[in-house]
Structures are given as structure tokens and as C-alpha cells.
Design brief:
The complex is a heterodimer of chains A (297) and B (247).
Chain A (H helix, E strand, L loop, with lengths): L3 H35 L4 E4 L2 E4 L4 H12 L42 H10 L14 H13 L3 H4 L16 H13 L3 H4 L38 H10 L15 H12 L7 H9 L16
Antiparallel strand pairs in A: 1-2
Helix pairs in contact in A: 3-4, 6-9, 8-9
Chain B lengths: L1 H30 L2 E10 L14 H6 L11 E2 L5 E2 L2 E6 L4 H4 L7 E5 L2 E3 L2 E5 L4 E5 L5 E5 L12 E3 L6 E3 L5 E6 L7 E7 L3 E3 L5 E7 L2 E9 L3 E9 L4 E3 L2 E4 L2
Parallel strand pairs in B: 1-18, 1-19, 5-8, 7-13
Antiparallel strand pairs in B: 1-15, 2-3, 4-14, 4-16, 5-6, 8-11, 9-10, 9-12, 12-13, 16-17
Classes of the chains: A mainly alpha (297), B alpha+beta (247).
């Protein structure tokens, strides 16, 4: 028979045991809260909008934190359920490495690049299109994303690459694009028909070691960094940092780059002038066993 | 009154001389520079280095047809000499000897679908070149930790591509990879101050070392680091030998 006092002390002990982890949890979130509150001096400039990080805190906490995490490290609650390559892991904003940039490989993206990415979303990933945000909200979120990485304090974004005006597509340009495709050997990963089945496709990993798929042009999906001709131009001329996709800026001239854009369009399911022309040309896939044409640039 | 002027003149002369000496210091020490030499060895049997299956790319298979390539994580030469070990002065350097950046540009070549050399050592902010001798497309993709200040980049090098010229901002062991040929794996070893890489017999020489007492560190990608204390006299060579235990 236990006395009342004994009973009470048992209860107290149990409560204390329960409270211990709770207390440490509370401590952790206070620390995290501090980082929430200390950082948001970051700003962004998109067109004539100025984004303020502090104004994005509530939106980030409500809409982004589940995947990207409180600390922006890409380790939100949901992240563990995202299994690459089918579901790429959420971006770790602390590293300041971004796929979709108008700037050279190894440089920070512009504020516009991040702004566009938020609205565009990431095709074939858990990142939806956030076009529901107002432009001001998106600009604020850009500033918020920037506050996670010290890179923005120490570096300036790279200079956006110059994209010359798009020329008229012609059968000659499509054929020339096929030559570029053969010369720089896009097919090593993307396959000779753009089906992501090149000899190196199966072993691709991203910078964090997770498996990653090459883009399959033929299944109707949109490229991750946009599906306009300009977007496709930008993708291979800047590379997608953090992934195996390198920059070809040093090895494809601007005019040739447009040829390649046109040729890549011939792989894509969507109806296009390029696809029609390729049909008429009866264009065959490049021969992977042909000796590489050397030194042509 | 006059003595006071004299004093001021002498004082300013001394200050001028001292600052001049400080400015010229790197050159002064360069005149009396010494070096550190030694040998790096592996104790025990060399670990088995797996042969590389290059069947992904017929060009690579053909290029190595006469002598198939093996992984290069631990390369042991004659007499147990350990190749591709980076040696640098981890403590004891100061002034110009520490901050001077060599003007030569080390070259990292992609040849026969391998990296030559497997480990390229360089100074912080020293320019280096990545070249390709191959008739197949490579992508050169170093993967440093961006938190260090070194930013990853990824550039293609199709056959005949011009060299890529780069440098790194911070000391780090940076893994380099070609995603197209996943067996291609090498290192950029970024250190501060004079350095050397051991040759196929395990020998090394760190040049341009001013007289002084130093800690030399040897880094091997799989076997870790070792340190040794070395004293260099003016115009003479210090010596430090290292022995790594096989795992």
C-alpha cells in the first residue's frame, strides 16, 4: 500500500522524465527562433520590386518549411520521404548552389533567377508552381532564401549570359544543331534520341551523391529550368549547378547554341516547326560510334 | 634643438629601413631559401586496386587497350614508395613565405579517360589549368564544400576544348569527378604555402622554404595525414620521411 506522498512523488518523477526531452526541444526551437529573427535583413531586387526577407518569414513558415526546413538546409519533415531520382531532395539553401541560373557555372544566380524558379516550380519534383504568390511575396521569399547562405554576403551574383535574338529556324540550322549534339556528345547521358538512355545515364549522381536522372526529352516533361527556347539555351550554356549537367559555354558558340536548341526541339513530343522539319529531312539519330570530330569549335 | 632634429632624422631613417626590409622580406628569404626533402612509404602490403571497367565508352577502352587502368586511391611504387601524397607546411610559416602565390600554373590533364596527375596540389589563389588530351567528351566537376568559400562548378570539355583556367579561395581537399566517366576521380589539394607531391618512388621536395622550424604534413586520400617536425637552415635542406600503415 503506497501512501499519498509516495504516489505523488511517482507522478512527479514521471512528469520530470517527460519534461526533460520537452525542455530540450523547447531550447532547440528557441535557438532556431533566434536565427529566424536575427537574419532577415536580406533584400532582393526584381524589376522595380524590392523584396524584404522579414516580410517572407510567415509565408516561408507556412508553405516552404515542410520540405526546405526551418534552417533552410533542405531537411524539413517531409524531406525524408523524398527519394531521388524520382523525387529529388529539397534544395539546401545554406550551400547557395542553384540549378536554374542565367549566370555562369560556379556563380550565384540573380534575384530574377530565384524569383522565376519559385513561380515555375520544378517539374518532376515535389516543388510546385508558386504562381499563387503575388510578385511582392515572391520577391520577399527570394530575399528570405538568400539569407540562409553566407555566399550572398561575400559574393555578387555572376553576370547573366547574353542570349542573342532567336534566329529563324531552318532545316540547315537543325542539321547544324545535330552536328553540335554529336560534337559535344550530349548523347553520352541524354541518348542519341534524347531518351535519357545514353551510356553514362545510369550512373549519374548529384553533388550530394544522390542518384539523378538525365532529362528525357521524349516523354512530354518540361525541362526543370523552363521550357521556352531561351530557357533551353540557358540550361546548357550555364549548366545546372549541383548536378552532372555541365556548362557548355566555352565550347558552343552563341549561334551554334541556337542550332542545338532547334535540334533538341525535334526530340520533344510537343508539336513544333522543328519536329515537322526533322520529319521532312528524315533526320537520323547521331552515330555514337562515329569518331569524335576533333578541335572543331 | 639640433640634436632633436638629428634624433628625428635617425628615427625616420630607421623606420624607413625597417619598412623597406619588411616589404622586401619575401625576396630576402628567397635568397637564403632552403628546402625539405624526404620519402613517403607504405608499410605492409599494398591494398588491391580494382581494375576499371571502361566499357561505357569504347574510346576509353581502346585508349587503354595495352595496359588496362586501375583505381589510383593508393599507388605504391618500387621499394614501397607511396605516390600522390601531398606534402605541405602546416605550421611555422609566416609573412611572404606563407602568402606568396606561385606564378606557375599546374596542369590537370584528362588523358586516356584518367586524371593526370591523380592528385594536383596547389596554393590558395594559385591559377591552375584543366586540359583534355582525349577524343571523348569529359565534364570536369570539382565538388568542394561551399561553406569553405570554394564554390563548386561543372564545365564540359569536348575533344579539342580549350583549357579551363581556375583557382580556389580556401585550403581544402577537393574531390574532382567526371560524371560521364564515373571512374574518373581525382583531387585538387589546396594548401597554403610551399608544397610538393610525392613521385612514383615516394620522393618529394618542397622548395622555397625559408630557414626555420616547421611542421610538415603528409596527406594521403585514403590513409589520412601524418606530421613531422623539420628544421631548415639557411640554404640547406631539411628532411622528413613518412611511413603510412596499410589498412
Amino acid at each position: 500500500m503506497r501512501t499519498g506522498l509516495q504516489k505523488w512523488s511517482l507522478w512527479l518523477g514521471a512528469a520530470a522524465l517527460l519534461a526533460l526531452p520537452l525542455a530540450s526541444w523547447a531550447q532547440l526551437s528557441t535557438d532556431q527562433l533566434k536565427t529566424w529573427e536575427s537574419a532577415p535583413t536580406a533584400v532582393s531586387h526584381v524589376g522595380n520590386l524590392t523584396g524584404h526577407a522579414k516580410d517572407a518569414a510567415a509565408d516561408y513558415r507556412r508553405y516552404c518549411v515542410g520540405c526546405h526546413g526551418e534552417l533552410g538546409d533542405g531537411n524539413g519533415e517531409v524531406a525524408q520521404w523524398l527519394a531521388p531520382p524520382m523525387w529529388p531532395k529539397p534544395r539546401n539553401f545554406q550551400l547557395g548552389i542553384f540549378k536554374c541560373r542565367s549566370t555562369p557555372s560556379g556563380t550565384l544566380p540573380t534575384d530574377e533567377d530565384l524569383f522565376d524558379t519559385i513561380a515555375r516550380g520544378m517539374d518532376r519534383s515535389a516543388m510546385p508552381q508558386w504562381s499563387t504568390f503575388t510578385k511582392q511575396e515572391r520577391a520577399d521569399l527570394v530575399a528570405w532564401v538568400k539569407h540562409f547562405s553566407p555566399r550572398w554576403a561575400n559574393e555578387k551574383p555572376g553576370d547573366a549570359i547574353k542570349i542573342p535574338p532567336e534566329p529563324e529556324v531552318t532545316p540547315e540550322r537543325i542539321k547544324a544543331g545535330r552536328d553540335v549534339f554529336a560534337r559535344v556528345q550530349c548523347w553520352k547521358c541524354h541518348g542519341v534520341q534524347g531518351m535519357a538512355n545514353g551510356p553514362s545515364a545510369a550512373t549519374l549522381t548529384d553533388d550530394l551523391g544522390a542518384p539523378i536522372a538525365a532529362f528525357n526529352f521524349t516523354e512530354g516533361a518540361r525541362p526543370k529550368c523552363g521550357d521556352t527556347d531561351q530557357d533551353i539555351y540557358r540550361i546548357f550554356m550555364t549548366g545546372l549547378d549541383g548536378t552532372p549537367m555541365p556548362s557548355f559555354a566555352d565550347n558552343i558558340k552563341p549561334d551554334e547554341a541556337w542550332d542545338l536548341v532547334f535540334y533538341l526541339r525535334t526530340f520533344m513530343q510537343q508539336h513544333s516547326k522543328e519536329r515537322e522539319m526533322a520529319k521532312q529531312l528524315n533526320l537520323k539519330p547521331v552515330d555514337p560510334n562515329a569518331p569524335a570530330p576533333s578541335g572543331q569549335q | 634643438m639640433r640634436s632633436r632634429y638629428k634624433f628625428a632624422a635617425v628615427l625616420s631613417a630607421v623606420v624607413l629601413l625597417c619598412s623597406g626590409a619588411l616589404l622586401l622580406n619575401p625576396k630576402v628569404s628567397a635568397a637564403g631559401e632552403g628546402k625539405i626533402t624526404g620519402t613517403v612509404k607504405l608499410d605492409g602490403t599494398a591494398p588491391h586496386m580494382r581494375g576499371i571497367d571502361m566499357s561505357k565508352d569504347p574510346y576509353c577502352v581502346k585508349a587503354n587497350a595495352s595496359s588496362p587502368q586501375h583505381l589510383e586511391n593508393v599507388v605504391v611504387g618500387t621499394g614501397g614508395g607511396l605516390e600522390h601524397v601531398v606534402l605541405y607546411i602546416s605550421d611555422g610559416l609566416s609573412g611572404g613565405a606563407l602568402t606568396a602565390v606561385p606564378s606557375d600554373e599546374p596542369v590537370f590533364d584528362q588523358k586516356n579517360c584518367m586524371y593526370t596527375p591523380h592528385v594536383l596540389a596547389m596554393d590558395v589563389n594559385q591559377k591552375f589549368k584543366v586540359t583534355t588530351s582525349d577524343q571523348t567528351t569529359h565534364n570536369i566537376h570539382p565538388n568542394p564544400n561551399p561553406m569553405t568559400g570554394n564554390i563548386p562548378w561543372n564545365q564540359s570539355q569536348p575533344p579539342g576544348a580549350a583549357p579551363v583556367e581556375k583557382s580556389w579561395k580556401a585550403t581544402e581537399w577537393i574531390p574532382v569527378q567526371c560524371n560521364i566517366h564515373p571512374w574518373m576521380h581525382g583531387w585538387f589539394a589546396v594548401v597554403k604555402g610551399p608544397y610538393a607531391t610525392s613521385d612514383s618512388s615516394g620522393n618529394y621536395t618542397i622548395n622555397n622554404v625559408p630557414p626555420g622550424s616547421y611542421t610538415v604534413t603528409a596527406w594521403q586520400e585514403d590513409l589520412g595525414t601524418q606530421t613531422a617536425k623539420v628544421t631548415v637552415a639557411a640554404g640547406a635542406a631539411g628532411s622528413a620521411n613518412f611511413t603510412f600503415k596499410g589498412k
